[in-house]
Design a protein that fits this description.
This protein is mainly alpha-helical. The protein folds into three domains: 64 residues, lambda repressor-like DNA-binding domains (434 Repressor (Amino-terminal Domain), Orthogonal Bundle); 71 residues, no CATH class; 49 residues, no CATH class. The protein is 65% helix and 0% strand. The chain has eleven helices and no strands. The termini are far apart. It comes from Caulifigura coniformis.
Amino acid sequence: MTDEHLSLSVTELAARVRRERMHRGWDVVELERRSGIGRTTLYHLEKGHTQRVRSSTLAAIARAFEMEAGQLMGAGDDPRAVERRLSAEFDRATNPAVAEVARERPEVFEGWTQDDWEEINSQFGVGGQLTPLGALKAAEAINEKRETVRQLQVVLETHLREVAREVIETFYRMVQATSANAPSAAAMKEMADRLGQQLPAVGDRPAR
């Protein structure tokens, strides 16, 4: 990508970089630390003062945001992507407590993906938008889910993967049965018995 062939105007690029930074609860100092781009350069870029932005600068900023440079530039945007982005921006605007907590507790949001941010910003409390405490609890719940998924991925790479699949399948069927129609006591007992048969087998499986 050359400096002369940017797919966004300087003003649009400035707004996008600023939006992505604020979306993560970062200040310019944090973006400087993560991207390796000088604070002065970032300041002028976000103000729209930079008429020729180096492709290396864009690449470094995109890496800090954990996205491709093309995504930062808006290359390949389609109506569905635009709609999703506008929806996410609306959710962020209606949940300002999320950005507040992200600024005060950045470690809670370390390594978050775009989907994680969209999930928390789309949540609401009992009376409407999340409070700071509610936002923190929601973030911690997302982190717990992320950790559970990570642990499951590790298990699926071991000799216990078949047992893990069977257990997850049993739980999934229980959830599906509960969601559709209340299962009979006999059906619930059958699923519980099946689960009980699977779990003791874990210690009997030889390591590979």
